[in-house]
């Protein structure tokens, strides 16, 4: 089984997204298949993540993007399985007043320290997460904060297919 679990966000990660590229190129990576990518339910996503983690033969590295980051954080508050580490890339701020109503049930965003090594990587111009909020979440979660500079939401729309800096961050857990 995989030692890296890819946890995409709302609407999944398309074929050119860095998460999909990693899944295809890393021999030990697998995507966590969520029950419904277009109408996410927190409880369903957290349980799908738990099932994927339970199927791993060794403690996995979790790689979340956007809403997938919140699934990881919610999972950590209700489950107790060993995790080698987590890379949380561009978490979605579901508490933003201008956020998608569909994603609000993933709030409130947990503000506890995660029980595993975590890196939170965020852009300074992400339309879904303000820089100050990213730093505050990293502090609350006990994560090392990495400021990626201006690079949008780290998705294909912001010009990200391959993401070499992310691969370097992932390598820190390996």
Gyration radius, to the nearest Å? 14 Å
What are the low-pLDDT stretches, counting only 5+ consecutive residues below 50? none
- Helix/strand-derived class? alpha/beta
Level-2 CATH architecture: 3-Layer(aba) Sandwich
SS strand fraction: 5-15%
What is the CATH superfamily classification? Alpha/Beta hydrolase fold, catalytic domain
Strand order of the largest sheet: 2-1-3-4-5-6
How many domains? The number is 1
Mean pLDDT: 96
- Looking at the structure, what is the overall shape? globular
Helix share, percent: 25-40%
The top-level CATH class is Alpha Beta
CATH fold assignment: Rossmann fold
Counted by DSSP, the helix tally is 5
H/E order of the elements?
Answer: EHEHEHEEHEH
Distance between the termini: 16 Å
Overview of this structure, please?
This is Alpha/beta hydrolase. InterPro entries: AB_hydrolase_fold, RBBP9/YdeN. Pfam families: Ser_hydrolase (PF06821). The chain is 30% helix and 15% strand. The protein has one domain: Alpha/Beta hydrolase fold, catalytic domain (Rossmann fold, 3-Layer(aba) Sandwich), CATH 3.40.50. β5 (118-122), α4 (131-141) and β6 form a beta-alpha-beta unit. It is built from five helices and six strands, in the order βαβαβαββαβα. Strands 2-1-3-4-5-6 form a six-stranded parallel beta sheet, sandwiched between helices. The chain is an alpha/beta fold. α2 (42-54) packs across α3 (67-78). The mean pLDDT is 96.
């Amino acid at each position: 089984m995989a030692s890296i679990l890819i946890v995409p966000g709302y609407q999944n990660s398309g074929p050119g997204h860095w998460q999909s590229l990693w899944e295809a190129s890393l021999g030990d990576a697998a995507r966590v298949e969520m029950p419904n990518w277009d109408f996410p339910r927190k409880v369903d996503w957290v349980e799908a993540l738990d099932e994927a983690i339970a199927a791993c033969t060794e403690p996995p590295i979790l790689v979340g993007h956007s809403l997938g980051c919140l699934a990881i954080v919610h999972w950590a508050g209700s489950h107790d399985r060993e995790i080698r580490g987590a890379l949380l890339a561009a978490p979605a701020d579901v508490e933003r007043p201008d956020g998608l109503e569909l994603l609000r049930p993933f709030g409130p965003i947990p503000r506890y320290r995660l029980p595993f090594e975590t890196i939170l990587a965020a852009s300074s111009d992400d339309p879904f997460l303000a820089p100050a909020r990213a730093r505050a979440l990293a502090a609350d979660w006990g994560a090392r904060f990495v400021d990626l500079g201006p690079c949008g939401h780290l998705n294909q729309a912001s010009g990200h297919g391959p993401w070499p800096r992310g691969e370097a961050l992932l390598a820190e857990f390996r």
